[in-house]
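Sharing a chain and its predicted structure for anyone who wants a worked example. Both blocks are below, sequence first, tokens second.
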Amino acid sequence: MTRKPTQLDAIADSWVEKMAELSPSFATYIGRKGFDDQLDDYSPEAQEAHLAESKKFFQQVKDAPVADKVDEVTKDAMMEDFQLGIELHESGLWKRDLNVIASPAQSIRDIFDLSPTDGEEAWANLVKRMNGVPETIDGYIRSLRLGIDGGDTPARRQVIMNIEQAEGIAAADGFFIKFAEAAKVDGALKSEVEQAGRQATEGYAKLAEFLKNELLPKANHVDAIGRERYALNSRRFLGARIDLDETYEWGIEELARVTAEQNAVANEIKAGASVQEAIEVLNNDASRKLHSTEELQRWMQNLSDTAIEKLNGVHFDIAEPLRKLECMIAPTNSGAIYYTGPTDDFSRPGRMWWSVPEGVTEFDTWRETTTVYHEGVPGHHLQIAQQVYNRDELNSWRRLASWSSGHGEGWALYAERLMADLGFLDDPGDRLGMLDGQRMRAARVVLDLGVHLGKKKLDGSGVWDFEYALDFMGKNVNMSKEFVNFEVHRYFGWPGQAPSYKIGQRIWEQIRDEYQAKQGSSFDIKEFHRTALSLGGLGLDVLKRAVLG
């Protein structure tokens, strides 16, 4: 039976509409029409407008009556979300919002990956969106100037890498130039698209110039964000309050445990082999090689389709619209692997994206089997698409806008382990690949907290610094030096985000174990998953209260 919407649902739905107005990128992401010709505004005025609307809706939610248990969770989640958003604004972090992966410097360009490109109307919208890039960047620069004026600027190493990124986009063969050239339109519209591509490119040239000439000389020489701001960021990404010092010590223990497990699996692959030697065996196994992006795409799609088929009706109940997951090769070359959710009506399905670096043509399946489970089913796709699907119970905010990294990425890591427990990673190579990822995520907990809280190095000699972090990470991942370098820059510039994966997994497992203890002999893990996922993307403290009561 369809649940009757409540007053609180109406407020939540109105907030989603307001979010679409405040963030056209969000509107594009959820498939809301009417905003695909606009960009987000990162100016100080827009920041204040967002704060004012947040406070207004926060009061409405606070005053709204609670009609049922669904409302109880909605109110709990929205109150937490608004309160955190207000605290984040008041912290002033938006005046120094620059990092190598997830700041406005990247977001302005990234939305073009999701923007509709089919037909003349779509490209007419894209002309306006590209023409808006310079103005959007101007607003962003004005916010960063407030940080300069207040002596609160991003770290120098983040600025340096962003200069490189912006100059790459602003190059004669940069993203917008190529994007416009590839447009499948003719005549006057084609000319408008190409001109808009040049306009957007000029916007990034202006950003590069500002970063180099104004921000870099004033950039912070200290990488660590400090305990108070770190605690705020940790709440932001987890939706939970944790003991930071206890978590650091747990991270050290968890890293040692996963490493020992990895060593045991390496011995299965080759008797007496180290992890590195086992990896060499796997890398030299021709049966585990893919030789083109086309092969990679087909392999991903087949593995994903098989997982959905085998899990559905056995370990999960997967609704029909969720059984379509598109595995895509991204139009960019960053090396990132990520998931984008379906539109509200499922006209655009959930998609797993692989951004393959330039020149990379070979891929090892042992590394990536678990990646497909992480991004697809039972990972992000099952989680995010399920909440979009659950419209009979959840308002649009709960379905489309409520998200925390700890919930989302924690679930995806939980899903990796679950697939191992269910026998989908019995192959030692595939299991080593899963453990490789788990070890990296455990290492990130130690590194991130170690750096930003000013912890002593693990050998006791001074505090964490960039060189030590780089060496530490290099010893705990089997990745290229370029990848490790980028990742460490990411952790230094985006405090609290990277640990949310492993800490999120820990909290998911704690909630499951407490739920099992509460249920006793009647515990059914399939029912636990159904109950938890049907709630949508809650902060982890709210999830715990909702599941355990």
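Comments welcome. The radius of gyration is 23 Å.
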